[in-house]
Design brief:
With 357 residues, the protein is of the alpha/beta class. The chain has nine helices and 14 strands. The protein is 35% helix and 17% strand.
Length: 357
């Protein structure tokens, strides 16, 4: 089989070592003679995986002592409801930078007063709003740090006068994060941290218990903190793969090492988009994501879109079709994507250009 280069927006490409170790665990988990997907989550062998995974999150992101890490089901979309249920008492604001940010806002509006403090929809979400005022009476400000559909990213940790909550589903573990600036960080694992099926939440513990509403047991973060993410049966396979992915990340040098790799991959591809006469980027340059590179055919060459998709597929490029809501192209350069993959895509774009100039 010829070499393929995977740019899927999620589930993501995972490190081969994490895949290989997971295959072995499916056959025999830690020498127990039992498959990983048949093991009891109450065994000491499984509890050691949970402990190690939690410790790796804390080590890699240098999470302060007064925060806890929990693993949940339901994806980041369920967290939209969790967040409002646990933190919204009177009023919250949301930075509307794309589809997922808007969906998070909608869930909050079902529970109380929540509004968009700023929005970039006026230009099809191609930029990150800046210079907006943050009222001091907010329960929290919610941001989505990376916008997978539109290819924009908030690349620094903002100073915020109210509790800051961030959906970091698609750029977590790609750069240093000052966790102390956030009341909570959450996301689906299936971009950089592991497979679909498990969601991480990093929560400052003293932020909980401040709302007056009744919180259903399963939607109360305190339930999952108190029970070590095992109030109900956890998604054992997804957590195991996540743990192996974190071990791989630590082994290659951690956050600083992967950030340098990710920056180089993104700069390589953006440079080709800007140079190539057949393509143009869609996000403002200052807000371009290093995780999701979005681009379209150049003006007047739109008729080549389907031809390029077919050409790229023939060259082994997987997953570069843009989100169905915007079209165009999207190359997701998550951590396990290699420089070799990006170089192959660039060569493909250059070859296609030569056929049409």
């Amino acid at each position: 089989m010829s070499k393929v280069h995977v740019f899927n927006a999620g589930p993501c490409l995972l490190p081969q070592v994490a895949i290989d170790r997971s295959i072995e665990a499916l056959k025999d988990f830690k020498g127990t003679g039992v498959s990983l997907i048949s093991i009891s989550h109450r065994t000491k062998e499984w509890e050691s995986v949970m402990d190690e995974c939690r410790a790796l999150w804390k080590e890699l992101l240098e999470i302060p002592e007064d925060y806890e890490v929990v693993f949940l089901g339901g994806g980041a979309s369920l967290q939209f409801l969790y967040v409002a249920m646990n933190f919204l008492e009177k009023k919250a604001a949301y930075l509307d930078t794309g589809v997922w940010a808007h969906k998070a806002l909608k869930e909050a509006q079902g529970l109380g007063e929540a509004y968009a403090i700023a929005c970039s929809k006026d230009r099809n979400y191609c930029y990150i709003p800046k210079g907006f005022d943050i009222p001091a009476d907010l329960d929290y400000l919610h941001i989505t740090t990376n916008n997978t559909i539109y290819g924009t990213e908030i690349k620094t940790d903002m100073d915020c006068p109210v509790p800051l909550i961030a959906d970091m589903s698609s750029d977590i573990l790609s750069r240093r994060v000052d966790v102390s600036k956030y009341a909570m960080i959450y996301g689906g694992a299936q971009k950089n941290a592991g497979p679909a099926g498990v969601t991480f939440a990093i929560i400052k513990k003293d932020m909980l218990g401040r709302v007056s509403r009744y919180i259903p047991t399963m939607l109360d973060y305190r339930t999952h903190i108190d029970k070590g993410s095992m109030f109900n049966t956890p998604p054992v396979f997804s957590i195991f793969v996540m743990n192996e992915t974190l071990k791989w990340l630590k082994g290659i040098g951690g956050i600083d090492a992967i950030h340098a790799i990710d920056e180089k991959k993104a700069s390589t591809l953006y440079a080709e988009i800007d140079r190539n006469s057949l393509f143009r980027g869609t996000a403002d340059k200052e807000d371009r994501s290093i995780m999701n590179v979005c681009f379209v055919m150049a003006e007047g060459r739109e008729d080549l879109q389907d031809e390029f998709l077919a050409f790229a597929k023939g060259k082994g490029m997987i997953g570069i079709k843009g989100h169905r809501s915007v079209g165009g192209f999207r190359a997701s350069l998550y951590n396990a994507c290699t420089q070799e993959d990006v170089d192959a895509l660039v060569a493909c774009m250059q070859e296609f250009e030569k056929l049409h100039i």
